[in-house]
Specification:
- There is one protein chain.
- The protein is mainly α.
- It is built from six helices and no strands.
- Helix 2 packs across helix 3 and helix 4 crosses helix 5.
- The longest helix is centred in the N-terminal third of the chain and has 15 residues.
- The protein is flat.
Length: 98
């Protein structure tokens, strides 16, 4: 185990955390609070990869949907409306049906 991993485990033990994951979760929350640009970048990456919707991305970034759309445009990220063409819809249905 690395020194960092040992430190996180120790913090969990002495700090009243359930486990190391709880320590890391709090650390990331604090990092995102202190560095809002990272919060925005994280939300944009989640949106870009399809992990979140536009509205959820805006919420994660701490901005309005309109501001989030502007940020996406500024970064050259195109937005999709979420509608599938006929071929994609059939493929999705086939995958769903198994």
């Amino acid at each position: 185990m690395t020194t960092f991993a040992n430190d996180v485990e120790t913090i969990a033990a002495v700090g009243g955390y359930e486990d190391a994951d709880d320590v890391l979760e709090e650390a990331v929350r604090e990092l995102l609070r202190r560095r809002p640009e990272l919060r925005t970048s994280l939300a944009i990456e989640k949106y870009r990869t399809g992990a979140v919707s536009l509205n959820r991305g805006a919420e994660l970034a701490g901005m309005s949907a309109e501001s989030f759309k502007d940020e996406l445009a500024d970064r050259g990220i195109s937005r999709t409306a979420g509608f599938l063409d006929a071929a994609d819809r059939e493929r999705e249905l086939d995958e769903f049906d198994g």
